[in-house]
Design a protein that fits this description.
The protein is an alpha+beta fold. Among the domains are: about 420-625, Rossmann fold (3-Layer(aba) Sandwich); about 640-750, Aspartate Aminotransferase, domain 1, CATH 3.90.1150. The protein contains 25 helices and 25 strands. The strands form 6 sheets. Strands 1, 2, 3, 4, 10, 11, 12 and 13 form an 8-stranded antiparallel β-sheet that branches. Strands 16-17-15-14-18-19-22 form a 7-stranded mixed β-sheet. Helix 1 packs antiparallel against helix 12 (about 375-385), helix 2 crosses helix 7 (about 195-210) and helix 24 (about 755-760) packs antiparallel against helix 25. It holds the Pfam family NamZ_C.
């Protein structure tokens, strides 16, 4: 793999010391990650640079930049074909400069500046729609293959592009398109009166001191360029890889830019410094504090401007992303901007934590095409894992223009299906059950009505009802905390939110004094160890002690209320993650569980359940038409929820279940797992899911900041027995890695001593299925007594 250098590059004596990046341990981990990607043939080498607004703080140079026709080592000054990074480094910046100078208007039709472009129904497409990929233009010029493009003169190719027919209406959807940025490159030349490359050199690269950046590199720069692939003229070294840009003689708005890590770091610092260049490491030294962009232009790059109502979003030119923080995967994708390039490049700039990351590879130089996806993702995660959490309030402070988008991301979605939940039925009854009452409410963001209004706000304005107190379960009212939560104040209602997951997890003495009823509205997960169920049990106990009714506003079992089973919790092992001995999946709604809890524990609460309308037991959540919100920080999608009862059987053990990754409960891994071996074993024994090897770095929780190897799980069909997939995961890990896997740590989640011991003895799947079926059969008559639907 060759020698490498990893340097804490202080390049500026004024670099802040209170924002460390990649400490000694993390540097070793990063080297391990990159070395693994090189060894697996995904990239020949890489340069990674991380820093803050004040300077570069860490740099890694590893592997080779050339493998053929001869071998050359990767060096810090290697020049890379940036591919689509051209769109943001050169084209977007140039367009925004021209907007600032009054030469372009984002809302003006492109045809005003390039009349020929107005053909084929494109007369109303605006400059902004090109920048945000909402123009409706196709990804590539249709009917113009690579060979055909290269036979054309650039002027002819541009005439053909001007006559392209849209494939969608403007602002109908986001469609990433190289054509958009070829057109933008043309606009820069037409409006400025200069060739596109000359404009960028004069107004962007020279003022920034980016001496190694430009189009069509000269022989000296080409000699230290990382080559991509070969063509009929030989290896592309210093010649653009992108076929469209190549047909335009290497100068285009979509691709063609070459640069180095040091130059890109200067560009990133400029954006973090509000558009001002600094001269760190640049020559001549006279290059100081030139203004490249205005702060308001940068803000427009970092806020959602696309047609889509839900993420992922795009700003002007850039892709939007969450800040580089431990909880980045639980945040809306606002606060940072980034872009990747086909050749294996990537850049991310975070306006909240004031950091940037650059990953440069020439992954296409590998014989099989290579793949920089895992390297980029793991490097981002490693950097994020060392930074700490970020709140939406911090994002709004850093980017005030993003507040509307943050509010939109937090707003509950409306329903569009047949089911009406308890809060909607209660409202249809004009809240008669609560007339004249002072009430408390146990809820969080999952409590909302068919119109997307929070249950808090619905009850706050309900006629004849006085909402006095709020209580929140684990994760808090906003479901954004993965740790104990303190009491707080709900800014909308002004009410105190009493945490039921802080110093105590029960209702404090006197917490219900002065109330006439306690209302409960939470979306359950349908799984035995989900703590909202224990909070329901504690609410029953507290209401009974206060001699007031508990009113449960019923919601669906999202996994379906027709299926139940899996290993059952043994009697006497109740805890906050197991209020009552139940199978792994109980197949009951919250209202039904409340009835079971009330009688089985002899609580004697005055329980009143507001039943749903239009609900069938066989419905999965997607069938209900109800709006979906994450029901916990790591249960963000229905696919994750579907796997949650199985994969969570590994919780508590020395295995990451994907917390702190984009796919919690869909990825399983650990540093000691052989992902390919585990995937092969599971694929050979299961037909209800597919398993693929995956490498990842969790930003939080188990193995935070450590490379993990494991499998990604894709459900193919429902398991024969609920929980059987999870039991198979535990059993397979125990069989393959008996010395490394801590099977003892799975005892509490599995719940059943008989099942857990059978796994430990190496019992086969048939024997394990018989055990779980026996336990489910014992629960069947008990469950039946409390079903409402």
């Amino acid at each position: 793999m060759g020698a490498f250098a990893f340097i804490a590059w202080s390049a500026a004596s004024h670099a802040r010391t209170d924002t460390p990046l990649f400490d000694g341990t993390a540097r070793a981990v990063l080297s391990q990650i990159v070395s693994s990607e090189i060894a697996n043939g995904r990239v020949p080498g890489a340069i990674i640079v991380a820093g803050t607004a004040d300077g570069v703080l860490a740099r890694l140079v590893l592997g080779k930049r050339m493998l053929r026709p001869h071998v050359e080592p990767m060096t810090a000054d290697t020049v890379f074909d940036l591919a689509s990074l051209t769109k943001v480094i050169a084209t977007t910046t140039a367009i925004m400069q021209l907007v600032e100078r009054g030469k372009l208007d984002l809302t003006t039709p492109v045809a005003r500046y390039w009349p020929a472009f107005g053909a084929q129904g494109k007369a109303q497409i605006t400059v902004q729609q090109l920048l945000t990929h909402t123009s409706g233009l196709p990804a590539e010029p249709p009917g113009l293959g690579v060979a055909a493009q290269h036979r054309m003169k650039p002027a002819v190719l541009l005439r053909n592009i001007a006559s392209i027919e849209p494939v969608a209406m403007p602002d109908e959807r986001t469609l990433y398109s190289d054509v958009n940025f070829v057109v933008l490159g043309v606009l820069v030349a037409r409006v400025s009166g200069m060739p596109f490359d000359a404009y960028c050199r004069r107004f962007i690269f020279a003022p920034l001191g980016m001496e190694d950046t430009g189009f069509t590199p000269d022989p000296a720069l080409s000699a230290r360029a990382a080559p991509t692939t070969a063509d009929s003229h030989g290896m592309r070294q210093g010649r653009v890889h992108d076929p469209l840009a190549s047909a335009l003689q290497g100068v285009a708005g979509n691709a063609g830019l070459f640069s180095t890590a040091a130059d890109l770091a200067r560009f990133a610092r400029m954006l973090l410094n509000g558009g001002l260049a600094d001269s760190e490491g640049a020559t001549p030294a006279a290059v100081r504090r030139a203004r490249i962009l205005r702060p308001e232009s940068i803000d427009k790059m970092a806020v959602p401007l696309t047609a889509d109502a839900t993420p992922p979003w795009r700003g002007l030119g850039w892709e939007l992303d969450a800040p580089l923080a431990t909880n980045r995967y639980r945040l809306p994708p606002i606060g940072a901007i980034g872009h990747t390039g086909f050749t294996g490049t990537g850049i991310w700039i975070d306006f909240v934590t004031r950091r940037f990351l650059i990953v440069l590879t020439n992954r296409v130089h590998e014989a099989n095409g290579g793949d920089a996806t895992a390297l980029r993702a793991q490097t981002l995660a490693l950097l994020s894992s060392g930074i700490g959490p970020v709140t939406p309030r911090q994002i709004a402070h850093a980017l005030p223009d993003a507040r509307d988008a943050l509010e939109q991301a937090a707003r509950p979605p409306a329903a569009n299906g047949p089911v009406r939940t308890g809060i909607d039925v209660l409202a249809a009854q004009q809240f008669s059950m609560l007339a004249g009452m002072r009430i408390g409410l146990v809820t969080n963001r999952t409590g909302f009505d068919a119109h997307g209004e929070r249950t808090v706000d619905v009850l706050l304005h309900a006629p004849g009802v006085t909402l006095v107190r709020l209580f929140s379960p684990e994760h808090g009212l906003d479901i954004d905390a993965d740790e104990p939560v303190r009491d707080s104040v709900d800014p909308s209602s002004g009410l105190v939110v009493h945490s039921l997951y802080g110093e105590t997890r029960r209702f404090a003495p006197g917490a219900l004094d002065g109330l006439d009823a306690l209302v409960f509205d939470l979306q359950d997960a349908g799984v035995r160890f989900f703590t909202y169920e224990t909070t329901l049990g504690y609410a029953l106990e507290a209401a009974a002690a206060a001699h007031i009714p508990l009113i449960v506003l019923d919601r669906p079992n999202p996994l379906g209320a027709d299926r139940f089973g899996g290993p059952s919790l043994d009697a006497g092992r109740d805890s906050f993650t197991g209020y009552l001995p139940l199978p792994l999946q109980h197949g009951m709604t919250s209202g039904e569980l409340a009835g079971l809890f009330n009688e089985a524990r002899h609580i004697g609460a005055d329980l009143r359940v507001v039943l749903m309308e239009g609900y069938l037991r066989s419905m999965r959540f997607a069938d209900t038409g109800l709006g979906w919100l994450p029901i916990s920080p790591n249960l963000r999608t229905l696919s994750a929820l579907d796997l949650y009862p199985d994969v969570a059987l590994l919780e508590g053990g020395n295995v990451s279940v994907g917390r702190g990754t984009p796919h919690p409960f869909e990825w399983v891994g650990a540093p000691w797992i052989d992902g390919a071996r585990l995937a092969a074993a599971l694929n050979g024994s299961r037909n209800d899911a597919r398993f693929e090897p995956v490498d990842f770095v969790p930003t939080e929780s188990t193995y935070r900041g450590q490379p993990c190897h494991g499998v990604r799980i894709k459900r193919a069909q429902s398991a024969r027995v609920p929980g059987s997939l999870g039991v198979a995961l535990v059993a397979t890990l125990h069989t393959l890695f008996p010395q490394a896997f801590d099977i003892a740590a799975t005892r509490d989640a599995i719940g059943s001593a008989a099942t857990w011991q059978a796994i430990g003895r190496g019992e086969g799947p048939d024997a394990l299925q018989i055990l779980m079926t026996r336990e489910a059969d014992a629960f069947r008559p008990v469950r039946q007594r409390y079903l409402h639907y």
